[in-house]
Each structure stands twice: as C-alpha cells, then as structure tokens.
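tool=predict chain=A
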Amino acid sequence: MEKKTLQIDVIGPIEGVSDVVKCLIYYNGHSYGFFMHKVSYEALMYDELFIRDGKSEDSAGVINTTNVFVEEK
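tool=predict ok
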C-alpha cells in the first residue's frame, strides 16, 4: 500500500465575502474544495503551515500552499 499524501492550496478570497478564503485539499492525488475563515487562514500562516507569503498568485491561480505531507509508515 502506498503512503498517503496531503497538501493544501489557498485559491483566494471569495468574491463578495471578505472573511472567507477558498481552498483545495489534495489527498492522495484527488482534490477537494473547502472554505476557511480568513482568521483561521491567518493563524495557520502565523504558525507557518503555508510556505508562501500569500500576497501574489502563481500561474495556477494559487496564492498560498503547504508542503506535501507524506505519511510515515
């Protein structure tokens, strides 16, 4: 059985909603969308879960991301 992987991308704020950001979680190569309160996102940025500054988007439209976490066996 392969090791499980996990990564989170932050796409950005929801248009018209100032306190929510849209995110994608990648689990074993499958993506799932979810929303996070901006306060929680900022707290995770402070705790250094995300690896970018969150101020500009890349060519894929992602403003922030995590490292890829791989399950240890």
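The two ends are 10 Å apart (CA to CA). The chain has one domain: 5-70.
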